[in-house]
Amino acid sequence: MRNTTFVIGILLASGCGAGSHAVRGPDGSQHQAISCRRSIENCWEEAARVCERGYDIVDKDSNITMVPTANGPIAVQKYNVLVRCR
Asked: What is the CATH architecture assignment of 2-85?
């Protein structure tokens, strides 16, 4: 039981933030692809971090993934945002 709680805690904690990487956008210029979990606010914080002079939202979507755990599956919401830095 203790190991299960620890693993669930790690899964939830690792999903709190956001990550980003540079990609080529629809217009051929450099954009930032951002993925985050639990709250889209994490995506906006990451966009502000990587785009110091602001950004324009190009696209966004979200999906729910079921993550198996020893106590049964849990739903984790993931957001994907594409921004162009100014």
From this structure: 2-Layer Sandwich (3.30)
